[in-house]
Amino acid sequence: MDHLKKDEESIFNIIVHSGNARGYAFEAMEAAEQYDFAKADELMRQSNEELRLAHETQTTLIQAELNGEGPEKSLLMIHAQDHLMTAMSEQKLIEHMIRIVKKIKEECQS
Length: 110
Hints:
- This protein has a single domain (3-109), classed as Phosphotransferase system, lactose/cellobiose-type IIA subunit (Methane Monooxygenase Hydroxylase, Chain G, domain 1).
- Helices cover 87% and strands 0% of the residues.
- It is built from three helices and no strands.
- It has helices at residues 3-33, 37-66, 75-109.
- The radius of gyration is 17 Å and the shape is elongated.
């Protein structure tokens, strides 16, 4: 596969997996809002898996760059990095929000 084409594919993988991770995390928050914590937990598991895939691709690109074989810097790469970092940040915030909802639910049942 052409080196440039492979880099572009990797960059798009970061964008896709990051977007999937965000989507699952927001669905999990909505499930928690309905007190469906089993569904929320499963959706967060899927979100974590998508982030793992995005991060794995990012790590491969970083290692290639350290070896002098990395992709050229581009707006598309910056865009992918932005997607990944935003997804990671939002996921952590949503995890915290779900814990809060669980705690409130428990306290209301006491």
